[in-house]
Design brief:
This protein is elongated. The protein has a 21-stranded mixed sheet that branches. Strands 7-9-13-12 form a 4-stranded antiparallel sheet, with no helix packed on it. A 3-stranded antiparallel sheet has the order 1-2-3, with helices on one face. The chain contains 6 helices and 36 strands. By secondary structure, it is an alpha/beta fold.
């Protein structure tokens, strides 16, 4: 395959334009390329006749004028990619009376144009030898950077704090198989670090290095009771206990086991997890950085856990007992108690209590009732019986946090302003880049201004990226909360107040097997 080409030649009555037809499916002569060439040679041509001659797709000489054929040397048009990663040339044949360029002359021209990397000299020599005219020939290629790989950490234990306890056939919680603690044995591998792989620089055809993206470095972070290998890549447990991941740091804790929390123990404050085989008496407190497991009853006591709180027989709060967990709370029942969980809450009954969960609350089992008090969840409350035939004041709330809405609106404003600031800098930076490509020399003050502008642009871009990330996170949370719902699998009694987001309703008559959602700006009852 060979493209068609053209050149000025002597004809019978003066000189003309010789047009060579393409062979084997090559490209025809480009009219624009011919007209631009003739303009540079100060030669006039009938455009209509030129088009007709090219369209015939055969060798032809188009007469242009009287006199001697102009002596036009071999020329070329050079095209550099916008990213400076490739250079394409189109050679134009010398006239019959002109001189052909040598390979060395062309290579010298490339050097003068600062094209110094990735020059395909063998391809250039081949094009000269074969006489490849009016053909796109890539004569220089840059080298793309080789991207590296980020470091990564693989954990060999469950890091999902949302794992659910095992349920019995009646929907109650099986307190003997909770699946909420990640046990480990001495010698167990807990985590492995895969180191990052550095990237390799690339290079433009102008010899400018191209840096690969920055790779992410990680380090294994851990607390006591853990060994790390000499190469810093493997964490191993030193003791039998349980393992947790808190803000990227691995902890292994021995579990503090006591029979009861009473006068014999006093208040307990422990770095790991606490397991209480019996009861927690009124007025005592238990604080643990890990989980708190109570196999008996909790009375009017205070329990605070960095992980989960699990109470097999429930809590009789006596209007002063309180539970507070960063994770989840699972208890047989709540009576005259206060409970706050960062995750979910699962129980079989809530009586005259104030209960709040960061995700959802499930009240199941055989009884499965909420009577009296205030029960709040971000996403969902599921219950069998809601309210009381005796008219006990019962309020349940689900939906978006007003503070989160306020933050979302402010972030939207911030993103708009940051986007405007970044866009205002881009034309100035682009102008500098274009002038630099054209060979314009800048003063030290101009270079200092450009450096300051680039630094400011990068900073604003980073702030914009962070703001967009937070905005996306809030959007996902609020979208979930917009679908907040109260599900009643049994009966809801009159007088019960249901709040969803910023709207509420008071139940006027008994209803069964229903779901309450926010619909068209109001709380509506729909079927399950």
């Amino acid at each position: 395959m060979k493209n068609g080409y053209f050149r000025l030649v002597t004809d019978a009555s003066g000189f003309g334009l010789e047009i060579k037809a393409p062979t084997d499916g090559g490209e025809c002569v480009r009219i624009k390329e011919v007209t631009e060439y003739l303009t540079l040679c100060n030669v006039l041509c009938d455009l209509s006749a030129l088009k007709n001659a090219i369209s015939e797709e055969k060798d032809i000489v188009l007469h242009l004028g009287d006199g001697a054929c102009p002596a036009e040397n071999m020329r070329y048009n050079l095209y550099m990619a916008e990213d400076n990663m490739s250079v394409t040339v189109r050679f134009l044949a010398a006239s019959e009376t002109g001189n052909k360029m040598s390979v060395e002359e062309f290579l010298h021209d490339l050097s003068f144009r600062q094209i110094r990397f990735g020059v395909e000299e063998a391809r250039i020599r081949e094009a000269f030898q074969k006489g490849e005219y009016c053909t796109d020939i890539i004569i220089a290629k840059g080298k793309a950077p080789k991207q590296g790989k980020d470091a990564s950490i693989e954990y060999f234990f469950n890091t999902d704090p949302k794992v659910r306890p095992t349920l019995k056939e009646d929907g109650g919680v099986d307190f003997f198989n909770l699946n909420t603690v990640c046990h480990c044995q001495a010698g167990d591998v807990l985590a492995k670090l895969t180191p990052p792989v550095p990237g390799e620089d690339g290079m433009t055809v102008l010899g400018t290095p191209i840096k690969p993206r920055n790779i992410k470095y990680l380090k294994l972070r851990f607390g006591k009771n853990i060994d790390i290998s000499e190469d810093g890549l493997v964490l191993t447990s030193k003791v039998n206990g349980h393992v947790t991941l808190v803000e990227g740091q691995v902890f292994v804790s021995d579990v503090l086991a006591v029979e009861n929390v009473d006068n014999s123990t006093g208040n307990i404050e422990y770095e790991g997890s606490v397991e209480i085989h019996g009861n927690v008496q009124s007025n005592f407190s238990v604080k643990a950085k890990g989980n708190i497991v109570v196999n008996g009853l909790v009375e009017g006591a205070y329990l605070e856990a960095g992980g989960d709180i699990i109470i097999a027989r429930g809590m009789a709060g006596m209007s002063k007992g309180e539970l507070k967990a960063d994770g989840n709370i699972v208890a047989k029942f709540f009576e005259n108690a206060k409970a706050t969980a960062g995750g979910y809450i699962t129980t079989e009954s809530i009586l005259h209590s104030h209960v709040s969960a960061g995700s959802d609350i499930t009240v199941g089992g055989r009884r499965g009732f909420i009577t009296g008090g205030n029960v709040v969840a971000a996403k969902q409350i599921k219950v069998k019986t809601l309210g009381s035939s005796m008219g006990a004041s019962t309020i349940v709330e689900v939906g978006a946090d007003p503070g989160m809405k306020q933050e979302f609106v402010q972030l939207q404003k911030d993103v708009g302003e940051l986007t405007k600031q970044v866009k205002s800098m881009e034309p100035i930076i682009a102008s500098y880049a274009m002038k630099r490509k054209q060979g314009v020399q800048f003063t030290p003050d101009q270079m200092q201004y450009l450096a300051t502008l680039l630094k400011a642009r990068d900073k604003k871009q980073q702030e914009l990226t962070e703001a967009n990330g937070r905005l996306e996170t809030l959007q996902q949370i609020m979208e979930q909360q917009q679908n907040a719902e109260v599900i009643v699998e049994g009966e809801v009694f009159p007088g019960t107040k249901i709040v969803i987001g910023d709207v509420s309703t008071v139940i006027q008559s008994s209803m069964k097997y229903c779901k309450f959602v926010k619909l068209r700006g109001d709380v509506k009852m729909v079927g399950i």
